[in-house]
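Q: what sequence does this backbone want?
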């Protein structure tokens, strides 16, 4: 669960789609201003609040021995927060509405790749949990094992080394210099 909402000066695993995407868009510009500490994004929705409040309960419901929660890994300007992990496996929690089937989006898959890269743990499950309407109103509900789904994600060395790291390295240098990458 993320405690510090300041997203400046670092690039996170959840930023991976921005890293490998088009750097010359208004969306990227707004995101980059946040990384430079010029703009603050205070986005908070009912879905994100519920997800944050249920995250630890979901992880505990897995009953995994040796589970560590909220580990942070910093490699230069890459800052990766793991929801839960053991020495051999990462558990990335994603909540969704129970009336919709959960599918691993490209953005979630990319985030998982960077989590595995940064942690050097190449075994990751997305823990999808279906929230019902009452769960958004009451964060004290018990976790229903029937609504939990574990989805394995395979590590893709090619994506990390050929697509992600070259772009991340450029962005890290631009971040250190306070420059916009698409203006070069």
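A:
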């Amino acid at each position: 669960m993320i405690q510090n909402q300041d997203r400046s000066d670092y690039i996170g695993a959840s930023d991976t789609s921005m890293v490998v995407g088009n750097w010359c868009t208004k969306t990227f510009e707004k995101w980059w201003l946040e990384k430079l500490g010029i703009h603050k994004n205070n986005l908070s929705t009912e879905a994100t609040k519920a997800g944050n409040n249920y995250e630890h309960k979901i992880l505990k419901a897995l009953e995994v021995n040796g589970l560590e929660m909220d580990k942070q890994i910093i490699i230069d300007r890459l800052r990766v927060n793991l929801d839960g992990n053991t020495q051999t496996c990462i558990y990335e929690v994603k909540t969704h509405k129970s009336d919709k089937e959960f599918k691993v989006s490209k953005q979630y898959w990319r985030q998982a790749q960077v989590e595995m890269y940064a942690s050097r743990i190449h075994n990751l499950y997305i823990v999808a949990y279906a929230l019902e309407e009452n769960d958004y109103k009451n964060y004290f509900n018990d976790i229903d094992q029937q609504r939990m789904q574990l989805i394995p994600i395979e590590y893709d060395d090619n994506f990390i080394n050929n697509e992600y790291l070259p772009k991340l390295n450029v962005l890290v240098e631009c971040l250190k210099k306070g420059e916009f990458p698409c203006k070069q």
